[in-house]
Amino acid sequence: MTTHFVNLLEELRRRSARMASLVEDMFQEACESVIDTNDALADRVIRRDNEVDSEEVAIESEVIRLMALYQPVGSDLRLLCAILKINNDLERIADCAVNVAERARHLEKDALSCHRDTITDMGKFVGSMLRNAVQSFAIEDIGLARKAFSEDERIDALYEQTIKKIVAEGATSSEGMAARLDVLSVAKNLERIADHATNIAEDVIFLSTGEIVRHTDNVSHLAGG
Amino acid sequence: MVTMSETRLERKSAINAARITPRVSRQATLHQENDSRIVIQADCVTIRYGDFEAVKKVTLDIPGHQVTAIIGPSGCGKSTFLRAINRMNDFIPAMSISGSLNYRGENIYSPKSDAVDLRRRIGMVFQKPNPFPKTIFKNVAWGASINGYRGDLNELVENALKQAALWGEVKDKLDQSAFALSGGQQQRLCIARAIALQPDVLLMDEPCSALDPIATAKIEDLIDDLKAHYTVVLVTHNMQQAARVSDLTAFMYMGELVEFDETDTIFTKPNQQRTQDYITGRFG
């Protein structure tokens, strides 16, 4: 019975890691679709959301089933709780990626010109953070989870910078306001993805240590290593 | 040496007092406030059956008015340790014990210690319900009667049966044989019989292993209520049961005490790998 349960648990962990990988791909393609204003890529991201949604439900159902049938404790309980919470964050990241892709379809070719560098940088940093968070879950590595924390402040700063720039542009000219709002929406969604990646990193800390570091000073402590 | 730090115990006591206050009388609450100190203290206790060491240098403090569960695989020494607390092992000729095992500061194995009086203060409930072949009333009244109890026996029996959550089911058939009761009722009758002697500590050795899930749930509810009045030490194979009913859990393996901590810590983030492996069913 125990071997059977351990196998089911490992299969679920792999399934969750596969979903994380799918969501990471969606994120990368969503960023590319904005930066290159590539409608075809944006459509592909939007289409893949259904796959993530059904996988989210399937994983959640399996977590509930295993909890009900095996009443896990200790590290098994922590793994199932982490999978359940990470599952939710992954689905939300996919939703944000879809939002970014939808903005990409609205954007005209030149609309991004003066924000391209900021959005590219944000995409790069968020991508690195998400990769570290997802990888930290896949191999249960606290060091990578800490690295993910450390990138959040830089992303917040870039987001603030984008807002200020857009507000300043709006003050000098009312033309292109719709495009600026699209850019703002992209930046906002990237910032939200970083927040979800932080949640995933926090869940990896819980998975590994049993400590809940959310809303505590421990997060900054952990971020510092 | 595995002991709970004083700060942790104080914190646990405070949490526990807050949790049970609504259910206990003021007298019981005051009793509890004055009595959350260590009741059973084991220091480097080793128990041998001939040359075989069943319990190896166990050191732990069992606080008052808490439920302390002892878990571990078969043969880990948990029942031997439990039975040592009220000297039930004295009946085994080859048994020897070293180290110190104290009850409220007094050495349980001192030559001056009266084993009969000790067992009155530290009662025991066994794995299989073992009522006497007598009426329900006499089962509960028996211990008090032979100990020269001079109070109102009817009142004593009623109170004990009420505390054991059995009164409502048996009040109209007190003169019937205890064997007419179901297994779960018989076990609660045995708890009432132990309670009637007004003990300080209740030792329970797998009290639910012979019961169905509904009877088990009733005993578990009862254990939760009993800690307002008694210190409960529970040996169980059923880890879910330990998780549900106890405040503290000790994990024993091959005679050693591996880990002793608050129950929620043991079942969510144990410190020792062997505990982790046992509670998740990787061995044992």
What does it look like?
The complex is a heterodimer of chains A (225) and B (284). By secondary structure, chain A is mainly α. Chain A has a single domain, classed as Methane Monooxygenase Hydroxylase, Chain G, domain 1. Chain A is built from seven helices and no strands. Chain A has helices spanning 2-35, 39-70, 74-106, 116-138, 142-172, 177-209, 218-223. In chain A, helix 1 packs antiparallel against helix 2 (39-70) and helix 4 (116-138) packs parallel to helix 6. The model of chain A has no long low-confidence stretch (mean pLDDT 91). Chain B is of the alpha/beta class and 284 residues long. Chain B has one domain (6-106, 117-279): P-loop containing nucleotide triphosphate hydrolases (Rossmann fold, 3-Layer(aba) Sandwich), CATH 3.40.50.300. Chain B has twelve helices and ten strands. Chain B has helices at 6-20, 26-33, 78-85, 115-121, 136-146, 153-163, 167-170, 183-195, 213-226, 239-245, 263-268, 273-279, and strands spanning 38-49, 52-63, 67-71, 95-103, 106-107, 122-125, 201-205, 231-235, 248-253, 256-262. A six-stranded mixed sheet of chain B has the order 6-7-8-3-9-10, sandwiched between helices. A four-stranded antiparallel sheet of chain B has the order 2-1-4-5, with helices on one face. Chain B is globular and about 55 Å long. The two termini of chain B are 23 Å apart. Classes of the chains: A mainly alpha (225), B alpha/beta (284). Chain A binds chain B through residues 1-2, 5-6, 71-78, 209-211, and chain B through 239-240, 243, 267-270, 275-276, 279-282.
